[in-house]
Write a structure and sequence with these properties.
The chain is α+β, with helices and mostly antiparallel strands. It folds into two domains: 4-207, Endonuclease III, domain 1; 224-337, Nucleoside Triphosphate Pyrophosphohydrolase (Alpha-Beta Complex). Helix content is 43%, strand content 15%. It contains 15 helices and seven strands. The protein is elongated, with a radius of gyration of 24 Å.
Length: 338
């Protein structure tokens, strides 16, 4: 009788996807792929990965790039803190290391690299026997072993980490971790087809009909609704934009002039109550666009307007021509509105 680990590795050998970063031992490329896939589906992430590696083939090239270059290449992937941390981390590595670090302990000291990413890099690039634990792995382990520990509790990760280490045993760390991640992505999905699962006979969730209740997660983040009124203000063939610097969504990206309100507010009311909008001539306005982010629902309206010659841009806002705007990193909802 094959062990669970052996069956998992056999399943992986037969079912693994052909991915551009798979089987690479280059720690830099593994890092880029893992960061992209943190909050992104594989099919969406592949073209971004290919473009990123083409533009920045090594950590030195990434370190020497401007933040705008990095963010523009990331445009559309969302969770832009990943891109900012990539850039920051690349600068630190380029300055302080002779080559990309592959030690789990060293990797954890770098910005934007948590235990999951560090384990993936260390195990795949250097065969360090450190298991990966992410959402997919939580699900696989919880079901296989009937683990009812609340995965939203911080202490739980160590419990799953040790269980994954036990399951790894003496298996090749790189193959084991990729197999575990792939199994969670393709087979042990939120609504699994257990009839074709090679591990079903040993799976506690399947045996006890608990597939829908494991893993246990009690803490949920509240979703907030925000109302964004974007004014695309034109003046002498230029448009008004500014860089978002606050620690909020889209930090580091450029956006049009924004009036955020607590609730839906008519254009008439905005023009009457906002001094900064005085003397603008409205061209047109869009219908409300709904844009969903993690734990935020944005209700966005775009209003195009012309500013008279004497109209001065508010502090922190600048005028850009079309060519300049194309080079600025912007939220994808804004790119689509152009």
């Amino acid at each position: 009788m094959f062990s669970l680990t052996t069956q998992l590795l056999l399943w992986y050998e037969t079912n693994k996807r052909s991915l551009p970063w798979r089987n690479s031992k280059d720690a830099y490329k593994i890092w880029i792929s893992e960061v992209i896939l943190q909050q992104t589906r594989v099919n969406q992430g592949i073209p971004y990965y290919l473009r990123f590696i083409k533009r920045f083939p090594n950590v030195s090239r990434l370190a020497k790039a401007s933040e705008n270059e990095v963010l523009q290449l990331w445009q559309g992937l969302g969770y832009y803190s990943r891109a900012r941390n990539l850039h920051k981390c690349a600068k630190i590595i380029h300055k302080n290391f002779k080559s990309f670090p592959t030690s789990y302990v060293e990797l954890l000291l770098l910005p934007g690299i948590g235990s999951y990413t560090a384990a993936a890099i260390a195990s795949i690039a250097a065969q360090e026997p450190v298991p990966v634990v992410d959402g997919n792995v939580f699900r696989v382990l919880a079901r296989l072993f009937g683990m009812a520990d609340d995965i939203s509790a911080s202490k739980t990760k160590n419990i799953f980490f040790e269980k994954a280490r036990q399951l790894m045993g003496n298996a090749p760390p790189d193959i084991f971790n990729q197999a575990l991640m792939e199994f969670g992505a393709l087979q042990c999905v939120p609504k699994p087809n257990c009839s074709v699962c090679p591990l079903a006979h040993s799976c506690q969730a399947f045996i006890h009909d608990r597939q829908t209740t494991l893993p246990v997660k009690t803490r949920k983040t509240k979703t907030i609704i925000r109302h964004f009124n974007y004014f695309i203000i034109h003046k002498k063939n230029k448009r008004l934009l500014a860089k978002r610097t606050a620690k909020d969504i889209w930090q580091g990206l450029y956006h049009y002039y924004l009036i955020e309100t607590k609730k839906h507010t008519s254009l008439t009311t905005l023009l009457r109550t906002q001094n900064s909008l005085k003397n603008l001539t409205i061209r047109k306005k869009s219908t409300t666009i709904f844009h969903i982010l993690s734990h935020q629902k944005l209700r966005i309206k775009f209003i195009e307007a012309d500013a008279p010659a004497f109209w001065k841009a508010p502090k922190g806002w600048n005028w850009y021509n079309e060519k300049e705007i194309q080079k600025l990193p912007k939220p994808i909802v804004m790119v689509n509105a152009q």
